[in-house]
Amino acid sequence: MNALATKIARWIETQGPISIAQYMNLCQFDAEAGSYTSRQTIGRDFVTSPEVSQTFGEMLGLWVAQTWHDQGRPAHPRLVELGPGRGTLMADALRAIAAAAPEFLDIAEIVMVEASPALMTVQRDKLKLIGADIAWHERFDDALADRPLYLLANEFFDCLPVQQYVRTPRGWCERMVGLKDGELSFALNPEPVPNGDTLLPLTRTGATVGCVYEVAPSALVMAEEIARVIASQGGGAAIIDYGYDGPGFGETLQAVANGKPAGLLSEPGEADLSAHVDFPALASAASRAGVAVYGATSQCNFLADLGIGERAERLIKSNPKDAREIAIAVDRLVNPAEMGALFKVLCMVPQGAKQPPGFGYG
Predict the structure, then answer these.
(1) Contacts with 66 (C-beta within 8 Å, 6 or more apart), sequence order
(2) Domain for residue 108, yes or no?
């Protein structure tokens, strides 16, 4: 049992079992041993699309520039990235925006929303090389709600804490983290959720005993907050993540360490924890806040419509020695057998705004 596991065990001994959402928060953001607060997981535990190919961030930069242009180029826009990783996506996006719409950068405020001090340092080092004036915030809040918002979120929502409920003969019971023989262990709350079939969305669709239902309340709140800003101030949001595009049951919470599956409870803080994003739930939350929602569509279709194939061809032409590596990297992004189908894209724009780029296929 590592130091964080011992700390969590002591907490459970005194306070009782904790929810999976609480457990995820401790694993990610514990001040001394959290996976985000104390170390870098990107590149060690997993590789994100911006790290696969520069074309990914470039396409999203073009998405921002075109969306801004289609909305009449509103003054004082704010470009925000949630969970910016190493800063690679923003660096590539800014380069593409500078080429396509330099006037956007002349008037835009650029903000990185990052909770990890370690990653914030990496981002500052990377982005200072491009000379952009960038601000950092630890969270998305009302301070970012007073301007047209153009927001990018790649592999951000999958890391937000989830709660799990299991269908039992006595009703829907929340899965908790407790102790068994001195070790962290999963257990069910003995008391079912009152009126669970009514209170838990979609659970009235014939769930049988043993079914697991996952929900990420903080993700829904975040989606609604973003949508509310876009509805009132203008702008657009592109959310890219792995997830599902239809309702259903199942457990998707996973732990990855050093690029391989790891035990969810074995070494807390040493692995990256994530769960598949419920895109229909995000879309519903955003719609309630008054925006027009597009998608979720596949990453493959989205990037193809933005012109990633043409960009790859130009990149290969100017870098013929790297042609094979460029082609392999782009194929990984768009191939349905790789990241092209598993990863989805959901976009928000104000009601009445032009359809955002990335949805003109077929």
Answers:
(1) 100, 356, 357
(2) yes
Question: Rounded to an integer, what distance in angstroms lies between the CA atom of residue 286 and that of residue 93?
Answer: 24
Helices 308-318 + 323-334 axis angle, to 10: 170
* Phi then psi dihedrals of residue 202, to 5 deg: 70, 5
pLDDT tens, residue by residue, 312-348? 999 999 999 999 999 999 999 999 999 999 999 999 9
Confidence bin at 204 (pLDDT 50/70/90): low
Q: In CATH, what number is assigned to the domain containing residue 345?
A: 3.40.50.12710
b/e for 208-247, b at 16 or more Cβ within 10 A?
A: eeebebbbbeebbebbbbbbbbbbbbbbbbbbbbbbbeee
Q: What is the pLDDT of residues 133-165, one digit of tens each?
A: 899 999 999 999 999 999 999 999 999 999 999
What DSSP line would sit under 231-295, residue for residue?
Answer: HHH-EEEEEEEEEESS-------EEEETTEEE-TTTSTTSSEEE--EEHHHHHHHHHHTTEEEEE
Contact residues for 196 (Cβ-Cβ < 8 A; gap 6+): 165, 171, 172, 203
Whether residue 180 lies inside any domain: the answer is no
d(CA 357, CA 305): 7
Per-residue confidence band for 43, with pLDDT thresholds at 50, 70 and 90? very low
Q: What is the dihedral of CA 60, 66, 68, 73, to 10 degrees?
A: 150
Residue 40 has pLDDT above 80, yes or no: no
Q: What are the distances in angstroms from CA 105 to CA 80, 85, 337?
A: 13, 21, 36
* Residue 325 to residue 15: CA distance in whole angstroms: 53
Residue with tokens 């949630």: 82
Q: Looking at the 3D structure of the chain, how many domains does it have?
A: 1
Q: For the chain, how big is the Rg over CA atoms in Å?
A: 21
Q: Which of 140, 123, 161, 112 is nearest to 40 (CA)?
A: 123
DSSP SS3 for 302: helix
For residue 207, tell me if it sits in a domain.
no
